Every structure is written in structure tokens, then in C-alpha cells.
Amino acid sequence: MVYDRDDVEGLDASILTNPKVLQYSGHEDTFADPLVDCRSCKSRWRADDLKDHKCPSCNSEDLTRPRPFNLMFKTNIGPVDDGKSFAYLRPETAQQIFTNFKNVLDSTSRNLPFGIAQIGKAFRNEVTPRNFIFRTREFEQMELEFFVVPGTDEKWLDFWVEERLRWWVEQGLDQNSLELHKVEKEKLSHYSKATIDIMYGFPHGLEELEGIANRTDFDLGSHTKRQSELNINSKVKKNTDSATRLAFQDKQTNDWGVPYVVEPSAGVDRGFLAILNEAYRVEKLEGGKERLTLALKPHLAPIKAAVIPLKRNHAGLLEVAAKIKKTLQGLQMGRVLLENSGNIGKNYRRHDEVGTPLCVTVDFQSLEDQTVTLRDRDTMEQRRLPISEVATHLQGLLTPQ
Ligand code: ATP
After folding, report:
1. 107 alpha carbon to ligand 1 midpoint, in Å?
2. Does the CB atom of residue 210 touch ligand 1 within 6 A?
3. How far apart are the first and last CA of the chain?
4. What does the pLDDT look like over 255-271, one tens digit per residue?
5. Contact 355, 295 (CB under 8 A)
6. Is 375 in the pocket of ligand 1 (CB under 6 A)?
7. Residue 267 CA to ligand 1 centre (angstroms)
8. What is the pLDDT of residues 161-196, one digit of tens each?
9. Burial of 97 (0-12, 13-18, 19+ CB in 10 A)
């Protein structure tokens, strides 16, 4: 988002959030799940998780009526817990993008359309965290707020849906496991004019991976000062606290207006779960053996290459291996490991399991002719290459096609 595009800035803002921000954004009033208690087995559920008004745990129909449960975590500010000085842990990364809008604009002299992207922790006191890392109380979000001229918002929503689908496929998700769901009007969040969810076929079912929303001028309009002068279209709370104009000045007419915003909002953890699901392979080998591989796209592999001397603690082999490791690490394309444990077969299997795309083996022939064996994770093919060509080979592997 940030490095590949020239129209997006990156931001790393705070997690602790002034309650006023989440008051004006509508989170204090509306960021709640309907909660139901089972009187029979005392379990607690999200009302929308229930089928036929029965407790999923004991099947009892003796349930409390749904009541709203706010999902935001609070923490004290200062040494005295008087219940008044508190902050929220941000429930999404988006709000700080809006409150920092003027800072970014002032330091970059951007023109519409442009975006601000942020990746980082978000916290929600989920009633039913479950399905491994699909739903957790502390998770990582990546969000882009793309500010556009009002009237072009629908076009940009379509653009970002296509762009985000393409991106997920580029990370290794099967196009056939992805579906687009248009959120029904009655189910739209308070800020949204239209939302498209990208759904993925997780092992536990088809669920949301990312939401792309047309948030119109709701957010900047909610957080800005002098709301009445800005022709805000959304229904916003009257802001009596803001000290900053969060708007954009037309360079030709000098008029101030609030841009619309289109927001792709994705969960890193959910994305990672989907990618794991695609990449995890169990292969049957000859002789009834099995091979476990994590066939991650090379650019996503946590270790890019392992350099393995054939014999453990052999000074000559180690010296050559350490030089290769240093060269490959110097490419700054990700982590490269030197494995001085001597068991080539075991090392290959371990690196298959964590998804290392390339193993480089240094043997006694390497000391004579300056060549090494490259072993490919997916095909298990081995070939010899001069040491001087290994870096170029790895670079080729790590550059997305
Ligand atoms: P859900 O309906 O599944 O609770 P949501 O619609 O509340 O999700 P958004 O507020 O749109 O989610 O958040 C954007 C993205 O953040 C989601 O698409 C998801 O990938 C991720 N996300 C939201 N809540 C969680 C969570 N509790 N754990 C992990 N990821 C989450």
C-alpha cells in the first residue's frame, strides 16, 4: 500500500485513545454486540451466533434477552483510579488516521485523491473469541483510509474491491475460495453508505476476511471543528471539543470541504490464517513416508534461505557458509539462517515445515570449485550453482512475478 503506491502515506499512531475520539466516532454508543446468557448452563453467547434460539452448548431455550455489550477495553490514565480519567485501547486503527489527517496533510502537501494507511494492534472485548486466530481480543489490523472527491466515492469503492481481491490472490489465496458479499442496507454500520465484505472459505466456514466501506464524510465530519461551515452530508454528532479543522481546501476556488473516504479494512491474523490454510501441505512420498510443507509464497516466508554446511563444526565449510549467509542477508530481503547442525536431511524437512523456499548446502566440493547445492522447497530438486550466482538466484525467487 505505502511503498508500491505513490498516493498513500504510512502512519504509526497511538493505541491509547482519548474517549472523546470514540465518543464522536459513534463507538461509545454503537460498538456493541448483542449478548445472551444461557440460564441453564451459564454460558454466554453473541445473539447472532445462536441458531433457533437455542444455547449452542446445552440446547436449552432458557436464554436471557439480548442486551448490548460494548466491545471496547478501558484502561486508567494517571495514578488514581477515579473512574473518570481513562483511555480506550483502540478498537480499530482507523480513528487515529482521521484525527491525524491535518498533520499528514500539512507535512505532505497532498491532493485528492490520496490515502493514509496504518497497520497495528486493535483490541475488542469479543464475547466469543474462537476458531484459532480468526477471532481474538487482541489482533492486528491493516487499514487504508483513501480520501476522495465526493461524487467519485462509488467508483473508488469498486476500484478498491478489485485491488484488494487481486492482492489477496497475490498472497497465495485461491480465487475460488474468495467471495464478495454486499452488506444489506439494514446491516450497514452507522458510518457506511455501502460495504463490500471479502469472504474467505476458512476451515470452519465462509467468513469475513476484509471489509471495504464507503464511509463518506462521516469521520472527518465528526472530528472536525466548525462543522456547520463545511456542508457535511453525514449525520454527525455536534463536536464541541475539536480544535482542528479536518477538511481540504480546493486550490482553485479556495473553498473548504470534507472529502469522502473509502476504507479497505483487513485483519492480518485472519489473512495469515487463510494463507496458512492454503499453504499447509502433506505429501505422500515413496516408501509410505509423508512430507509436511508450508508452501508460502517466497515473499511471505519468515526465513528466506537456510545455508547448511554438510558437516557440523567443520572450520572450512563454516567459513564458506558464513560468507554466503552474510551476502544473502545483505540483500535485506528477509531472514537468512546458518544451520550448523550437520544433518542435511533433517534440516531440509524442518525448513520445508516453516516454509523456507531455498536451502543452500556447502559441501567439500564447494571448497574446491566454489559451487554449492541449491535445494528447492516445493520440487525438492537439487542443482549445483557457482556461489557467485546464489544471491541473484534468491533475488529472482523473492521478486513477485
Ligand atoms: P466480525 O463481523 O467478524 O466481528 P467486523 O465486521 O466486526 O468482523 P471490522 O470491524 O470490519 O470487523 O474489522 C475489519 C477487519 O478486522 C475484519 O475484516 C477482520 O479481518 C478483522 N477483525 C475484526 N475483529 C477481529 C477479531 N476479533 N479478531 C481478529 N480479527 C478481527
Report:
1. 31
2. yes
3. 18
4. 999 999 999 999 999 99
5. yes
6. no
7. 6
8. 999 999 999 999 999 999 999 999 999 998 999 999
9. buried
